[in-house]
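Why should sequence recovery work at all? Because a backbone constrains its sequence more than one might expect. Tight turns favour small or flexible residues, buried strands favour hydrophobic ones, and helices have their own preferences. The token representation captures these environments compactly. In the example below, the structure is given first.
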């Protein structure tokens, strides 16, 4: 645009020079058609300055327009008093020359106004070329206006000064073009631009200058010409600008107040706002006993992300977590970031859905977080504290503390689960949870190595590189295979075949149990489908992640998986690990009863190693009890262990529950267990874990056929 304007101005100079030389004119007061070409420069200069990005909000644009009106009107009044009035009077009989002169003056004033307005709002990196452009446009406007004044007063002796001004304008514009070549590409700044101090007072400078000039020189004739109208427009613009300033200040105060209650990174409520809303909700319970609940959410091992990938990557994860949390709650619920990787949700009114909300939050983390092209699995732990209508009065601090207690209980259980506060829970210092440990080496795992190991494990899960082996379960009376247990293995590319005890803690620690359970279930039933297609029918046992028993949709999902492979319900045994605390016994019982209805059997694994064995036998529909190898292995040498095994078997018989002994390593142990009345055994004495084809060969062997026939005959 500047090149276009300079070209037009140069063309005008050439035309004006040729016109005057040809006619041998000595009176430079005569306006020529070339003067029209001079107008291209101030017009193009205005466009060039406006093309610089301003990044202004809607209110700032309106304010910029008002500032332009104030400056334009004031400069016009000054120019009218000093130059344009006399020019108007001297050319009143020549409308063409008068119009061209007035247009030139007005356009110059507009160009000067735009230069001032744009310069006050220029970005730091753009101020050098903009300043030079503004200087060039200003020199051109002043020189043109001075030239018109010299024409009116016939003071031709000072035209050399005008020529110097024109030349200075050309030099400034040329330097601006050179300086702009060094400006780096503009990067969009998401922050709201702040008004510079100059932009606050600069529009009033022309008003201050114009006021005494009009008062001293033009006040008696204020009603003549355009002065009165322009002055009224300027006054109206000043008033409008002041109203805009008041509105902007009010909006900024509102933003500051809102930001004081919002987390700057995620936009969620901060701890102050959450505490205020929680306190208000607790106070309402005094009058209407309206129930409310708090869900405390904490990210497991989030410190690894910050330590290994940097805080910017952590910020991306936290922002994504905020989006996922907002998608899980109802419109009236309050989601807050309390600090670091701690979040909270306030549920008021109908809290019957609080568990559904919590489980939706857990499921929302099934998808990996993408940071710089890498996929990270971040898992949460969630705790719920409920204040129902029948509960006694509880304070806001107590309710939040109870939610934290439940959350840390979930974290100690392995994460990726939801616990509800109960009176038996106690808060354990989270710092006492210890550093994460690499289960493959036993060395505390921090930094990039831990992240790489997690990425490898996640890739193995996503690409189905984890594999399932099957350990047969034998009838201790007939030696017939009555089932198999699916055991997970990880064929690591560098460390070889890894057993579950080497990487299962890593899976639990980082919230991958749900995905791994789905993988094992699918592969195990694929193997069972192969056997059934060959006419061999034995059930396969799959270990179920205990917290998933809180999912009421689990029976439907499992029935669908069975139906997809054409398997009957009795082809599957689901094992729940006794050392993992079930969050809601009533909910788990409902899920298990729904699973057992079509014929799926339920086994209680690792019986005796946890703290809920007897209560599980009493409260849950259990078909099998699996004695842990810690009790089975010393049964020949330790009378106390033998007494425990015998007592458990007798208790199981009284409850009409089948007993399965794990870790049977020799014939003597097998005979002793049979003597105690144990029905089923598994271990290396009978068979190591096998792949699906090896299991099929074993089941199809003549010996097993005879054993199954003997079992059918009761021998």
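From this structural description, the recovered sequence reads:
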């Amino acid at each position: 645009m500047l090149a276009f304007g300079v070209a037009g101005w140069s063309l005008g100079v050439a035309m004006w020079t040729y016109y005057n030389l040809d006619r041998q004119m000595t009176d430079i007061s005569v306006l020529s058609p070339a003067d029209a070409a001079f107008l291209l420069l101030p017009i193009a200069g205005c466009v060039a300055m406006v093309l610089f990005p301003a990044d202004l909000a809607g209110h700032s644009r309106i304010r910029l327009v008002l500032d332009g009106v104030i400056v334009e009107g004031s400069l016009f009044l000054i120019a009218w008093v000093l130059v344009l009035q006399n020019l108007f009077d001297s050319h009143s009989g020549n409308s063409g020359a008068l119009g061209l002169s007035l247009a030139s003056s007005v356009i110059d004033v507009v160009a000067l106004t735009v230069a001032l307005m744009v310069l006050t709002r220029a970005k730091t990196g753009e101020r050098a070329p903009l300043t030079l452009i503004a200087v060039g446009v200003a020199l051109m406007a002043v020189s043109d206006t001075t030239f018109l004044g010299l024409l009116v007063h016939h003071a031709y002796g000072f035209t050399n000064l005008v020529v110097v001004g024109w030349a200075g304008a050309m030099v400034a514009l040329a330097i601006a073009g050179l300086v702009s070549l060094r400006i780096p590409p503009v990067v969009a700044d998401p922050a709201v631009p702040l008004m510079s101090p100059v932009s606050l007072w600069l529009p009033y400078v022309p008003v201050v200058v114009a006021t005494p000039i009009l008062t001293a020189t033009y006040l008696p004739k204020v009603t003549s010409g355009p002065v009165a109208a322009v002055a009224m427009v300027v006054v109206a613009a000043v008033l409008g600008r002041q109203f805009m300033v008041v509105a902007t200040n009010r909006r900024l105060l509102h933003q500051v107040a809102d930001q004081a209650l919002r987390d700057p990174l995620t936009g969620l409520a901060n701890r102050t706002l959450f505490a205020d809303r929680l306190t208000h909700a607790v106070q309402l319970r005094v009058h209407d006993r309206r129930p409310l609940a708090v869900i405390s959410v904490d990210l497991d091992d989030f410190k690894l992300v910050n330590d290994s990938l940097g805080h910017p990557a952590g910020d991306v994860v936290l922002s994504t977590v905020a989006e996922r949390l907002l998608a899980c709650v109802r419109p009236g619920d309050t989601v807050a970031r309390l600090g670091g990787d701690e979040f909270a949700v306030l549920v008021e009114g109908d809290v019957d859905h609080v568990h559904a909300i919590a489980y939706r939050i857990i499921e929302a983390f099934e998808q990996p977080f993408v940071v710089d092209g890498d996929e990270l699995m971040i898992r949460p732990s969630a705790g719920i504290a409920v204040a129902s209508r029948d509960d006694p009065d509880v304070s806001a601090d107590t309710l939040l503390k109870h939610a934290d207690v439940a959350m840390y209980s979930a974290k100690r259980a392995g994460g990726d689960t939801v616990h509800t506060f109960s009176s038996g829970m106690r808060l354990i210092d989270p710092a006492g949870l210890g550093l994460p440990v690499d289960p493959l080496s036993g060395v505390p795992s921090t930094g990039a190595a831990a992240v790489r190991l997690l990425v490898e494990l996640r890739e193995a899960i996503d690409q189905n590189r984890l594999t399932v082996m099957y350990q047969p379960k034998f009838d201790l009376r007939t030696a017939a295979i009555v089932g198999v247990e699916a055991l997970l293995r990880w064929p690591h590319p560098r460390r070889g075949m890894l057993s579950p005890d080497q990487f299962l803690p890593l899976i639990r620690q980082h919230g991958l149990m749900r995905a791994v359970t789905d993988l094992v279930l699918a592969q195990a039933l694929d193997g069972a489908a192969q056997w059934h297609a060959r006419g061999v029918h034995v059930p396969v046992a799959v270990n179920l992640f205990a917290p998933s028993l809180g999912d009421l949709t689990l029976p439907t999902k499992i029935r669908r998986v069975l139906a997809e492979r054409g398997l009957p319900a009795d082809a599957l045994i689901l094992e729940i690990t006794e050392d993992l605390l079930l969050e809601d016994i009533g909910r788990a019982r409902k899920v298990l009863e729904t699973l057992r209805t079509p014929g799926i059997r339920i086994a209680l694994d690792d019986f005796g190693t946890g703290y809920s064995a007897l209560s599980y036998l009493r409260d849950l529909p259990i078909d099998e009890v699996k004695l842990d190898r810690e009790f089975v292995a010393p049964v020949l040498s330790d009378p106390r262990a033998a007494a425990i095994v015998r007592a458990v078997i007798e208790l199981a018989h009284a409850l009409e529950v089948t007993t399965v002994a794990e870790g049977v390593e020799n014939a003597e142990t097998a005979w002793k267990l049979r003597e105690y009345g144990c029905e089923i055994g598994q271990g290396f004495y009978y068979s190591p874990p096998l792949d699906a084809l090896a299991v099929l060969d074993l089941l199809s062997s003549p010996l097993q056929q005879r054993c199954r026939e003997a079992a059918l005959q009761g021998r």
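A few observations help interpret the result. The two ends are 103 Å apart (CA to CA).
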